[in-house]
Design brief:
Order of helices and strands: HHHH
Number of strands: 0
Number of helices: 4
Structural class: mainly alpha
Helix content: 55-70%
Shape: rod-shaped
Low-confidence stretches: none
Largest sheet: none
Distance between the termini: 106 Å
Mean pLDDT: 88
């Protein structure tokens, strides 16, 4: 009779141990999935932030048309650094095609003292919108440029 009782206790302990092991394995699996998701979300956020900065710099350069304008005293104002950084960001985070477009833009700029970055800006915008869950724009956006009226200054 006593052996049967010990056997019953063993079965109860065994059930508890198996339940604990299953719970621990479940926790480990859930933790790994959560950690992987968090890493992926952080990577996405980093890329969106970097691409947004690159997008703004390139869009601004297209609106301003000149990266090294002169002020009223003839001193050069360097607006090229954000664009230079944008090209580096694209090479770091962009797709192969975006990197190729960035290289083409840089070479065109060096060879012609200016270049068209519209295709690259559109590609960055599309990528950013995809990361944020939005659709790409169907129509080409129109940007606003406000310049002071020189007669009223």
């Amino acid at each position: 009779m006593r052996a049967v009782r010990h056997h019953g206790e063993f079965v109860e302990y065994f059930k508890i141990i198996v339940a604990v092991i299953i719970a621990v394995i479940g926790w480990i699996i859930a933790h790994n999935f959560t950690s992987a998701r968090d890493v992926k979300n952080a990577q996405r956020a980093t890329r969106v932030e970097a691409f947004t900065e690159a997008y703004k710099a390139l869009a601004r350069s297209g609106l301003d048309k000149e990266l090294l304008p002169k002020d009223k005293d003839g001193k050069v104002i360097n607006k090229a650094i954000p664009v230079e950084n944008a090209i580096a960001i694209i090479h770091l985070y962009g797709t192969e095609k975006q990197s190729q477009m960035a290289s083409k833009y840089a070479l065109d700029f060096v060879n012609n003292r200016g270049a068209d970055c519209t295709e690259l800006v559109n590609s960055l915008r599309k990528t950013i919108r995809e990361y944020l869950g939005g659709e790409d724009l169907k129509n080409m956006p129109i940007y606003l440029v406000v310049t002071p009226n020189k007669e009223k200054i």
